[in-house]
Specification:
CATH superfamily of the largest domain: P-loop containing nucleotide triphosphate hydrolases
CATH architecture of the largest domain: 3-Layer(aba) Sandwich
Order of helices and strands: EHEEHEHEHEHHEEHHEH
Number of strands: 9
CATH class of the largest domain: Alpha Beta
Bound molecules: guanosine-5'-triphosphate, magnesium ion
Strand order of the largest sheet: 2-3-1-4-5-6
Distance between the termini: 25 Å
Shape: globular
Helix content: 25-40%
Length: 297
């Protein structure tokens, strides 16, 4: 069988996590209409009789700045480094941007094989994407089209995956147990579901300043008990996240719990607490606790 790592790269909000979830037929990565949703690159394993592909869902490319942006930029580099093939995702309605050129230059510099996937194929092509696509030489680049709304989505994905697998080395056996779906810790994935519920239910800039720390994760008789802290970076955000008589936090908890139960296939008690931590994105200890540091893998 053919085995290896595939890095999913591109600008924020182009549909990388949506593609990743479709490939894995399981919701692992969080998706939202807002850019910079993905922070830690998550892994997903796809095993068949013929191949085992391990996908990295990277954060959208951003130029390094302080705090969380520096972490996002490093995660992008780490995905390039840890992949055997790079899948560059371009949304069909994407406009010309310096950031995309920079992201592409980084991918090319690695000298790893590249494949291009044009997603949101249900939307009209922008002039930039038309031009970019024409500039690709079909003889030396793999080019795919994809849309989460496509009718023949499943067959299309099967072709994409088997074509990618052909580029990867042969292995006498899979690299990981075929039953594994991710290399990430369950609690990291659970924290992402809580963050996703916040993205869905909170307005404007609030979700961008949030972090989720899992404080406890243990089985207690017939239920999995999870306690988590939601960190906010501004004092007045605390009351917004909690809502009138705790109504907003209750909604967040309900939505997150449903996703977690669906993912884990078991009953969950989810206790959420909101804590104000001024400028947590500049505090290296908190960043570490959230997993936003360079320790991973
Ligand atoms: N029309 C259309 N929308 C899509 C498609 N794929 C994803 N989207 C939408 O695009 C938005 C962004 O999707 P994500 O999957 O979160 O994008 P991402 O590239 O992972 O974003 P970051 O994590 O912020 O870098 C969401 O609102 C998706 O529902 C598609 O094929 N067609
Ligand atoms: Mg994403």
């Amino acid at each position: 069988m053919n085995c290896g790592f595939v890095g999913i790269l591109g600008l924020p909000n182009v549909g990388k996590s949506s593609l990743f979830n479709e490939i894995l037929q399981d919701k692992i990565s969080i998706v939202s209409p807002k850019p910079q949703t993905t922070r830690q690159s998550l892994s997903g394993i796809c095993t068949t009789d013929d191949y085992q592909l391990i996908f990295w869902d990277a954060p959208g490319f951003v130029n390094p700045k302080k705090g969380i942006f520096d972490f996002l930029a490093k995660e992008f580099d780490r995905v390039i480094e840890n992949s055997d093939i790079l899948l560059i995702v371009i949304a069909c309605d994407q406009l010309e941007s310096l950031a995309f050129q920079q992201a592409l230059a980084k991918a090319k510099k690695s000298k790893k094989p590249l494949a291009y996937l044009f997603t949101k194929a249900d939307l009209p092509l922008s002039p930039y994407v038309t031009e970019f696509r024409e500039s690709l030489d079909p003889r030396d680049s793999l080019v795919f089209d994809f849309s989460i709304k496509g009718e023949n989505k499943k067959e299309n994905l099967e072709t994409i995956l088997s074509t990618l697998a052909e580029q990867l080395p042969e292995s006498p056996q899979p690299l990981y147990d075929p039953d594994m779906i991710s290399l990430d810790k369950t609690r990291d994935i659970v924290a992402e579901f809580i963050r996703e519920a916040c993205f869905e239910l909170l307005q404007q800039e609030i979700p961008f300043g949030l972090g989720v720390i899992i404080k406890s994760f243990k089985h207690d008789q017939h239920i999995l008990r999870i306690e988590a802290n939601i960190l906010v970076e501004k004092e007045n955000h605390k009351a917004i996240v909690i809502g009138k008589k705790g109504s907003q936090l209750k909604e967040i908890g309900k939505k997150a719990r449903e996703q977690i139960e669906k993912f884990l296939g078991e009953k969950v008690f989810l206790g959420l607490h909101v804590a104000y931590k001024k400028n947590w994105q500049k505090d290296s200890n908190i960043m570490k606790e959230l997993g936003y540091d360079d320790r991973r893998r």
